[in-house]
Structure prediction request, 75 residues.
Amino acid sequence: MNDNKHDEPYFMEDGTLVIPFSCPDHSYKYWKKEGKQLSEILAEMNVDKETWKKFTTDTHPDDAVKKADSDENKD
Prediction:
């Protein structure tokens, strides 16, 4: 993300996720047909697990890696 938070998604101090309407990359507008899933956006923003759980029920990327590793070790 660039330093101009008026063009890219960012979090306000109170934890509110802001995806500016003026954001030139429509893939961040998860509510649009061409938008990414919210979990993809959160992963790009490298949010912690606590923040992740506030916005989605999808598996956090760190947990997905651990599960994949444990599945490989079962063989």
Remarks:
- The two ends are 39 Å apart (CA to CA).
- The beta strands are 10-11, 17-18.
